[in-house]
Amino acid sequence: MPDPAGNPHGPVLVGYDGSEPSQLAVRWAAGHAAATNRKLKVIHAWVWPVFTKNLGPVKGVEGSGLRHAAEATLQEGLDLAVSVAAGPGVTLDIDGVIEPGLPAQVLRAAAHDAAILAVGHRGMGRFLGQLVGSACLDLAVHSPCPLMVVRYPGRPGQPIAAGIDEKPRHAKVVAEAARMAAALNVPLQLIHVAGDQAQAPHGRHAPLHGKELLDQAVERARGLAPDVPVEGILLESHPVAKELLAAAAQADVLVLGAHHREGHPGSTVSSALERALCNVLITR
Asked: 3-state class of 109 per DSSP?
């Protein structure tokens, strides 16, 4: 397989802020770490030092203060991870850390040593929710390792889906999707959507060219993960993102390439982050 971005031997990293979406992210990350025999690292991006120096407890009030609140939030995330991983024969190495700073900056820095980074699709409350929502878009472009955006509880046994297109990152999408399907022992669906009346090179009609592209991707995936059932799905519709999301609606995870331009993750990734009916993995 192509060398993955990030550290292939690194931990599963997950951001936690106490919100319901971040709880889903921790649950997913703990399950994935256990399934792939990786260490789990829970990180809490502590934003308040960016805005104030009054972080300590209120005099005479035990358990007060922003620092104590951050420590309690991290511990909550660690306890949740432990509860998810608990079970006969399951051992999970879990670590936690508080890092001061804005979520995108903190997670981006920590992700250099991670195999995969998991985040919720938004945060807790209007203010922090906006920070985490913007962090999600930032990380979709700038994360140094594959980014899992957790929108729903996992669907054990359901296939991994991958969006296949003609862009250069196509090979990494296939490799990452095949790797995940093999690790979870589930089928793999490779989906190519040809836009209406699109023209392929040398005058070939898009569906024909799309079939060739898809056949190559299926062959590659079968070579990378021989024990994984692989299905190629060719569709013709417009807009492409809408059809792709509909085709992947019953999947456990949709794997996409990061086709960003000028700080934007691209229309398909943006649509998936907003409207996908499954969790979304963005490759590097």
From this structure: helix
